[in-house]
Each structure stands twice: as C-alpha cells, then as structure tokens.
Design brief:
heterodimer, A: 113 residues, mainly beta, 7-stranded mixed β-sheet, B: 114 residues, 6-stranded mixed β-sheet, 4-stranded antiparallel β-sheet
C-alpha cells in the first residue's frame, strides 16, 4: 500500500510569489490534514479537509488556503509569500469514519528568499 | 483548549541506556486520543502509538513502552536499551475527537551516542 505522497520535495520561491504544494492520501483515506513545521515553532495545524470540505482551520492568515479534490488528494496554496513562511509542510491522511490514526508524508520543504 | 507539553527539549544518552520522554497534556474533553510520533532527520513523522482516553493499560512494543496515567494527565514513553537508530525528535500529540486535528508538544530530541 502506497503511503502519503507529497510533491514537490523542495520548493524555492521569492518573497511575494505563490506556492502550491500537493498531497496524495493513502488509498481509502478521505481526510487530509496540513501542518507547518517552522524552525523553532514546532508543528502547527493549518487545515483539515474531509470529503471535499474544509472542516477546520488553524490560526493562519487567509493567504494560506487549499482544497480537496474528488479523488481526495489535496493542494495547499500560499499566496504573497513571506520569509517566515519558510518551513517544512507536512500532510497527513486518515479515514475518520473507521477511526484510523494519522499517517504523514515526508513533507515539502519550502524556502522563501 | 487543548495543550501538550514536553518539558525535555533534548536528551543525550549512551547506547544501551534507557531513556524516558515525558508528556503532559491538558484537555476538557473526556474522550480524547494520545499519540507518539518519531521524526528522523529525513523529516517524515513515523507513527508509534495511539491510545484513547478510556484505555489506561500500559503498552510494550519491543524496546518501546508507554505509561498512560489519567490522574496526572501524562503519557510517558520509554526506550529501553537505546540504539543509535533511535536518535530522532519524538513528538507527543493529542486529538480531542477521532479525526480532529492533532495538537503537538514541542518535541524532544533524543541523541544516542555509540
């Protein structure tokens, strides 16, 4: 069974640009979660999508947005990039109805210069 | 609001020593889930264990063991006879409902020296 896959592995952007990060969940998982791991700030919850709907959002500005597609894959968009957006972005998936735990991908390391 | 505290930021041990990682949590819910994850240098979070609030049985899996005590809101993790491959950052996390977001502790970096 394939795990959670994230792309790209690394992304370098200039301040003010937009970044798009992608996540494919484990087959059968309907929920996707996004977390930001910035240096010194630990793991912060960003967004939760389930069955195509946004279910919960962390304390991040609106320029962090995303969506979930009919095949349950997800995209995280970060607009108007700032230097402090440089971080490892981790995606996790779960099958909530089955009470599964959370499986994480290897992450996308975003560097804003 | 939920909160997870890992007071130890870094622990250094020599191979074969035991190491215990502390985790204290806060939640108003009576139903909740506790997790431990390992993050090696590659960055991926590796699932170690999930425990729900109604199951206070301690668990052992190989060299890993967990001690869940609701009375002190703690969910501690012990690595017995540590190995160099155990070197990683370990995170304790809490979810207040199945499928809801995870709230992570700050993590404990474990360095096992040969």
């Amino acid at each position: 069974e394939a795990g959670v896959t994230q792309s790209p592995t690394h992304l370098i952007k200039t301040r003010g640009q937009q970044a798009t990060l992608r996540c494919s969940p484990i087959s059968g998982h309907t929920s996707v979660y996004w977390y930001q791991q910035a240096l010194g700030l630990g793991l912060q919850f960003l967004l939760w999508y389930d069955e195509g709907e946004e279910r919960n959002r962390g304390n991040f500005p609106p320029r962090f947005s995303g969506r979930q597609f009919p095949n349950y894959s997800s995209e995280l968009n970060v607009n108007a990039l700032e230097l402090e957006d440089s971080a490892l972005y981790l995606c996790a998936s779960s099958w909530v109805a089955r009470g599964d735990g959370y499986t994480f991908g290897s992450g996308t390391r975003l560097t804003v210069v | 609001a939920q909160k997870v505290t890992q007071a130890q930021t870094e622990i250094s041990v020599v191979e074969k020593e035991d190491v215990t990682l502390d985790c204290v949590y806060e939640t108003r819910d009576t139903t909740y889930y506790l997790f431990w994850y390992k993050q090696p240098p590659s960055g991926e979070l590796v699932f170690l264990i999930r425990r729900n609030s109604f199951d206070e049985q301690n668990e052992i899996s190989g060299r890993y063991s967990w001690n869940f005590q609701k009375s002190t809101s703690s969910f501690n993790f012990t690595i017995t006879a540590s190995q160099v491959v155990d070197s990683a950052v370990y995170f304790c996390a809490l979810s207040e409902a199945a499928g809801n977001k995870l709230t992570f502790g700050g993590g404990t970096r474990v360095l096992v020296k040969p």
